[in-house]
Each structure stands twice: as structure tokens, then as C-alpha cells.
Design goal:
The chain is built from six helices and seven strands. The chain is α+β, with helices and mostly antiparallel strands and about 160 residues long. Helix 5 links the parallel strand 4 and strand 5. The mean pLDDT is about 90.
């Protein structure tokens, strides 16, 4: 049975991520400055083995995610394409941003990501959630009841 464990997102954890041979965000997360990381990373474990991980941010106001999105996701000449996202998020308070949800290749397709999402929705039952979705993962997010936010790559739940 899978389990979710919160671990400090420190240099040791970045080293673990840097050594992974699979994991879509692992290389990027292993290189980030400590100021760009949340306090914890959530490990998805099965039989005491890490099968995946998730990075989430709890934000108290929309401007925090807009600033992160402008830095990490928007190309300066494409900001106009993100209008639907900015309109939706700018007046939001108290929500979750899922920066990464990665299952290691050898454990994909076994329900681990869905297990994490069920856990996350139970942990934050009344919070709106956002994720920047890549085409390859959009079907997963639809199965989790997320909806596309206007004409953007952003998806939202609740």
C-alpha cells in the first residue's frame, strides 16, 4: 500500500533527486537554489521504497503564484497568452500549487499518482489547486477532475 511522507527539502534531498535516472522534474529540482524550494517535499513510497515525489506550494494570495509563473513558466513575449490564468488567480487566497508530481518510470501506471492526489485532496478539502500541465500528462489531470483554465496550459481543481 502506498504511503505519503513529508521530508525536509534540503541539500540531501536535492542530492537524492539529482541521482535519479527517471523523474521528469528531478534534475531541475536538484539544481534549484534553496530559496526556490518549499520547506517539504512529499515522497510517495511503497514498501519503504520511493516510487515518486511531489512538490507543492501553499499560497495565501494570487500574486505569489503569478510572480512564480512569470519567472518559471511564462516567456516574456507570451504573457498575453496567460491572461485567463492571471484573471483567475489574481484575487485568489489560500490555495495549492502543484509544482511537480513525478512517478519513477518503473512504477508508472500502478495508481501511485492517483493515490497522491486522493491524499492531497483529503489533506486540503476546501482549497483550490493549480497545476501547469504538459500535454503528456493532461489526461491524468482530467481524470483527477481538473479543468483547463481558459486557453492556457494551466489546470485547476475546485
Amino acid at each position: 500500500m502506498p504511503a505519503i511522507t513529508a521530508k525536509p527539502f534540503n541539500e540531501d534531498m536535492q542530492k537524492v533527486l539529482g541521482e535519479l535516472s527517471s523523474g521528469y522534474h528531478s534534475g531541475e529540482l536538484s539544481q534549484k537554489d534553496a530559496s526556490e524550494l518549499p520547506e517539504n517535499i512529499y515522497l510517495i513510497e511503497n514498501d519503504d521504497m520511493m516510487v515518486g515525489y511531489a512538490v507543492i506550494w501553499e499560497y495565501s494570495n494570487g500574486n505569489q503564484l503569478i510572480l512564480k509563473a512569470e519567472k518559471d513558466y511564462f516567456k516574456s513575449d507570451e504573457k498575453y497568452m496567460q491572461r485567463d490564468f492571471i484573471i483567475d488567480i489574481k484575487n485568489r487566497t489560500d490555495y495549492i500549487f502543484i509544482e511537480a508530481l513525478d512517478i519513477l518510470k518503473e512504477y508508472e501506471g500502478k495508481g501511485n499518482a492517483a493515490f497522491f492526489m486522493k491524499w492531497l485532496k483529503a489533506k486540503y478539502p476546501n482549497k483550490r489547486m493549480y497545476v501547469y500541465s504538459i500535454d503528456k500528462s493532461q489526461n491524468f489531470w482530467f481524470k483527477q477532475d481538473f479543468e483547463v483554465l481558459g486557453t492556457t496550459a494551466w489546470m485547476t481543481y475546485q
